[in-house]
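Dear Dr. L.,

I hope this message finds you well. Following up on our conversation about the binding site, I have prepared a predicted three-dimensional model of the protein together with zinc ion. For your records, I am including the exact sequence and ligand specification that went into the calculation, followed by the structure tokens. Please feel free to forward this to your student if that is useful.
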Amino acid sequence: MEEIVCKKCGVVNEYKTEYRGKHLTAFCTACGTYIKHIPHVEPAMFFSKKYPDMKISECEDLQYLQWVHEKIKLSNRYKEAVERRIDELEGYKYI
Ligand SMILES: [Zn+2]
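The resulting structure of the complex is given below.
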């Protein structure tokens, strides 16, 4: 795994990530400086018996995602990805 280094204070792999539009962006946790966009490698839905090889962002099954969101305890990263996908799918519905 690539090391993420803060150019300002030099800490290594001490960063938090936030989504900025479509990008996942790394910020230094020590000094708060923007570090860089990091490649957004989204893992498949390992927690899903129904779609274990599918990525959250590729899932078209809104009801299933809503069920996942309600019933499965996920880490924040996955939870946020599921929430974003639900918003997207609900968005399409109302267009
Ligand atoms: Zn820093």
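In brief: The pocket of zinc ion is lined by residues 6, 8-9, 11, 28, 30-31, 33 (CB under 6 Å).

With kind regards,
A. P.
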